[in-house]
Design a protein that fits this description.
By secondary structure, the protein is mostly beta strands. It is about 10% helix and about 45% strand. The chain contains three helices and 17 strands. A hairpin with a 2-residue loop joins strand 7 and strand 8.
């Protein structure tokens, strides 16, 4: 082959079109549902009232179009009530926020889409230690989503707030003396609300005597809304307190 032929071949190879990478539904279509599957008793914590947790998370993108199953290894389970659909990166498409637990390290909060794990907090560090999510919302108006949960609601009772930014979670504050779950209950108390003055987190005092609101106003502030009762908590979440 002459030098001219080699040059011509190089030119042909350079201009040959490169095939586009395939687009998956989770990249450009909405997540419409998420649910746990594959029940298992391999992590017998009983914190939610029974020994059944889940080994897989099923994500549905547009009914009938695409379904993705996130299956955990044997040492981990989804120790949770249900997945929460949240738009953590403000791109108009939701992700799944879940609690998963490791047999030796306890719980962590994690964010998934159809491609797998996006981000997660560190594990608490000890077997049979759990966290209870509150919600995900831009609490301080900076354009980034904050994710809040109670770290060990039966022991440490610390509200932790993490900011999702640049595909990672960074803890921005920790507030002691708050809780949102009692051992054996199959639900989490409180959540997020916006009654016209900005987003708030609604939880309980550690002794379950009061309903407490936490919001950002040039700093993290807490306010007692009323004495605690299930009815009063419903009223608080409906902006009637």
């Amino acid at each position: 082959m002459t030098p001219r032929s080699v040059a011509a071949l190089a030119i042909v190879l350079c201009v040959y079109p490169i095939a586009a990478r395939p687009q998956h539904p989770w990249q450009n279509e909405p997540l419409v549902s998420a649910e746990y599957s594959e029940p298992t008793a391999r992590y017998p914590h009983w914190v939610l009232g029974d020994q059944i947790e889940y080994g897989a998370l099923v994500l549905q993108y547009l009914p009938g179009r695409a379904e993705y199953t996130i299956r955990l290894p044997e040492e981990r389970v989804f120790e949770d009530i249900k997945p929460r659909l949240v738009d953590v990166d403000n791109d108009g498409k939701r992700e799944a926020m879940v609690v998963e637990s490791h047999r030796d390290k306890g719980a962590r909060l994690a964010i998934y889409n159809g491609g797998g794990l996006i981000a997660a907090t560190p594990y608490i560090g000890t077997r049979f230690r759990w966290l209870a999510p509150i919600g995900a919302v831009d609490l301080d108006g900076d354009g980034h989503i904050e994710i809040a949960y109670i770290d060990r609601p039966h022991l440490a009772k610390v509200l932790r707030i993490w900011r999702f930014k640049d595909s990672s979670l960074t803890e921005i504050t920790a507030l002691p003396g708050l809780t949102n779950h009692r051992i054996g209950e199959n639900f989490i108390t409180g959540g997020t609300r916006n009654c016209g003055a900005g987003p708030e987190l609604v939880v309980a005092s550690t002794d379950w005597q009061n309903i407490v609101s936490v919001r950002y106003d040039d700093g993290w502030a807490r306010e007692t809304l009323s004495r605690f009762s299930p009815t009063a908590m419903d009223q608080a979440m409906a902006c009637k307190l």
